[in-house]
Protein 1
Amino acid sequence: MSNLDMLPLTKLDRLRMESSNNRELRDRFLNDPAGVLREAGFALSDSVNIQVIEDDETTHHITLPPFVGTDPAPQGPSSQPGSGPSTWECTTCTPTTPIAAGSLASLACV
């Protein structure tokens, strides 16, 4: 049992952490993120574009959810008529939000 097995991590958190130590996984995740996520058990629509970007010692990326306007009522892709479920709404449901915030954390909720 590894130390990771003792932490309350999502599948995505585990995949991200493993990619920091496994060069082959990291390279595949950067080149074929949807394929790696599917192999890990995530169900992805073919219409979803997944991009993995790499931080380094001096550059850290922050991603923002889609802009939905100034109305505080929830709006976005999933609230539009005829649209299917969306993954953009939830980025706080994982106990490891500081690790996954602003990333694909929402995929763990779908």
Note: The CA atoms of residues 34 and 73 lie 31 Å apart.
Protein 2
Amino acid sequence: MKKIKTVLATLFLTVVAVISVPSPAAAAPSSELDYAEASGAPSDTSHCVTQYWAKTCYVAAGDKWYILDRLDDGGRPFIRWENYKDGALYRTGICSNRLGFNHWGVCNKDYYESSILWVRQNAWKISNNNEMYEWSDWFKVQ
């Protein structure tokens, strides 16, 4: 009888351990990819970062990312955003502006109001074998 109880207890603990360990798919959300649609400049510029190749602004009312291509080199500026909910990475993605020099583009997202957003920007240098510029620093927008 003692042996059966030991086996059952071991089996129970094994099942609990397997269930409580998150799968790799749950630990790393798949990345979203959006191509910005043509737009005007954002009305709210309180959450913006500017590099010589791009300017990126986040407007919380509507959860919109605005990206301006500031360099006439054929490159494509983009941002990488990360969305944290309850302290864990919940969503991640890229918004890319392929509209050309001096054109604003917008990506419309939908985030939880209480979540945290981090973003950084870069650009593909299409004329230089798809190399990238240096990443901007991460900055928190929400």
Note: The longest strand covers residues 76-85.
